[in-house]
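Appendix B. Raw example, untouched.
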Amino acid sequence: MKLTLLCGTNRPGSNTRKITGQLAGIYAALGQPAEILDLAELPPEIFLPASYAKKPAAFARFSEAILASDGVHIVTPEYNGGMPGVLKYFIDMLKFPESFEHRPVAFTGLSAGRWGGLRPVEQLAAVFSYRNAHLFPGRVFLPEINEQLSPDGRVTNEDSLDRLNTQAKGFVAFIGKLR
């Protein structure tokens, strides 16, 4: 099974990247390694207007990773009450409909506020519903993320860790049932 973890921001030093890395460790402990796609690594030329008509060659590894995935787990922060613009743009740059049609997708949201990324996850659920993805119902929201992270960037809150572990186990099972 090929699993992709998508770090849904290109912000330097983001907490999203820290959570994505921790989730990769959780999946590895389950015997299910996951490839991380980090939007901070998008090629600059993807942001040129000409990319709508012809994708730059350097974008191919991103597109191919999604197309080859049996499931995509998206980790998103909340920016101004919604998903990061770069995440929506990334989704828009991928092939339609095959990039997400009938592909299992899971969501983890995080925020500095008390809602834990609820708003961007709900927005993403609408987008992926439109894209005919199979939405995994076990969503995780990590509120007040700055208080949940150790100095080395790991989640220390036991409840949050339990929810991330439960989500990962459930998503692997969900993908397996859909295959």
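End of appendix B.
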